[in-house]
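Researcher: Please translate sequence to structure tokens.
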Amino acid sequence: YEAPWRDPWEPFFVAPARGVPPFDERFLQYGFNRISQACELHVAGFRFAVLDGAFVTHRGFKEPGGFHRGREAELGLNRRLFRAFREELRRRYPGSDRRC
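Model: Translation complete:
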């Protein structure tokens, strides 16, 4: 079934190596890295579908106090970068009525 876009959204997804907008490498470390690519896919007109019988596992847990010291600074920088990134998407996809 199709999974509609919701903001904010950080899905794990499977995509072909070609024909998909590349990951924006300006987003480093913590925050907005997966969401920026999913956002661009959405604005570019891609749709997300849930795979039947497939799953992904994530190793490790996030625990209070378990993040590195620079996490908040990284998150703040990536948050500001994401705001500019969304404006770039409007220029990159002028015919799209999708936003994120």
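Researcher: Any highlights?
Model: The CA atoms of residues 8 and 84 lie 16 Å apart.
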